[in-house]
Amino acid sequence: MRKTCDVGLLYVKRAESYRSIREEEVNKMIEYSISKHCSLSSPGVAPVDLTEKSKARKDISRIGWFLPKGGVNAGAITMEWAMAQDEVRTWIGNKGKVSETDIDQLQYLKMIVKETLRLHPPAPLLLPRETISHVTINGYEIKPKTMLQVNIWAIGQDPRSWKDLEEFIPERFLDNSINLKGQHFELLPFGSGRRACPAIHMGTTIVELGLANLLYSFEWK
């Protein structure tokens, strides 16, 4: 089943073929938000608290996973989002929307996504693994059929890999090759190897596209 999903649905080339669908869905989200915002300025229309329309916050766009959360400097975050917004708007200009072909040019936005995943991975632990044979790691003897859990949150908070590890600093990824594909063990939000999340490419693309369009279309305070 995993092989079928990986090759049939989540393989990079196949995921690329769904580009028009993803862009259409993001555009619908943006247009809906704009129309709601505009309706608030119409005479006789009372403001509507949209949060009351959906109590299930888990149903809100998964882009929320990648937004900075508490524990970081609010002033610094404002500066960083302003820089990301300036990057998006400078590159896109008057095109009216961000497309997937633009994403590779938005390097600061990509750094923001990486840094947010370092601080707040989708889950603190990877799915459990089981050893096939006897292994020794750093002096620890691990028997066959031992259940192992990888703490990716702790990896992202390891002082041996990260300076100022509690700070939200997207620039730490400037001029380095660290990516989210599981090849760099200091950043593994989606796991690594044959058991890595098969939707790494599609998931990060959706997040980057949605976030870029939100930064392009709205002013954030």
From TrEMBL:
- Localization of this protein: Membrane
Q: Please list the cofactors this protein needs.
A: heme
- The parts of the chain that form a coiled coil are none
Cite the InterPro entries for this sequence: Cyt_P450 (IPR001128), Cyt_P450_CS (IPR017972), Cyt_P450_E_grp-I (IPR002401), Cyt_P450_sf (IPR036396), Cytochrome_P450_71 (IPR050193)
Membrane protein topology class:
Single-pass membrane protein
Any one Gene Ontology MF annotation carried by this entry is: heme binding
Alphabetical list of SUPFAM superfamilies matching this protein: Cytochrome P450
Q: What keywords would UniProt list here? A: Heme, Iron, Membrane, Metal-binding, Monooxygenase, Oxidoreductase, Transmembrane, Transmembrane helix
Which residues does heme bind?
197
Can you cite an annotated GO cellular component?
membrane
Q: Which family does it belong to?
A: Belongs to the cytochrome P450 family.
Could you tell me what this protein is called?
Answer: Cytochrome P450
Write down the species: Cannabis sativa (Hemp)
